[in-house]
Design brief:
By secondary structure, the protein is α+β, with helices and mostly antiparallel strands. It has one domain: Alpha-D-phosphohexomutase, C-terminal domain (TATA-Binding Protein, 2-Layer Sandwich). The protein is built from 2 helices and 6 strands, in the order E-H-E-E-E-E-H-E. Strands 2-3-4-5-1-6 form a 6-stranded antiparallel sheet, covered by helices on one side. Strand 3 and strand 4 form a beta hairpin.
Length: 104
């Protein structure tokens, strides 16, 4: 199953992640605290980690429509919920690099 990730620069990573989790809680299984989150959608899984200056997003879904849907759902909602920050999610193939290697 393909993995893909994004590193989204934001000083409000925890807030943005929490908003996503609260929104998706009625549609998917969500486990979250202030720094970590996991969302299990019917079409794929998403894990997030809030750092001081960026949000790390690591996802996995079946290739094709499920992958496209997961990318769209996460990016679209994060961009809408970020308000004036106007965040953009740029997906990259593969698993999220080790935390120390991830650069915003």
């Amino acid at each position: 199953m393909p993995q893909f990730h994004a590193v989204v620069p934001t000083p409000r990573a925890s807030r943005n992640m929490t908003r996503l989790c609260k929104h998706f809680a009625h549609k998917a299984e969500v486990q979250a605290d202030a720094a970590h989150a996991q969302i299990a959608f019917a079409f794929g899984d998403c894990r997030m980690h809030a750092e001081a200056d960026h949000l790390l997003i690591d996802c996995q879904a079946e290739a094709g429509e499920a992958q496209k849907r997961l990318c769209f759902v996460i990016a679209d909602h994060l961009e809408r919920f970020s308000g004036e920050e106007a965040l953009q999610v740029i997906w990259q193939d593969g698993p999220l690099p080790i935390a120390g290697d991830a650069q915003p």
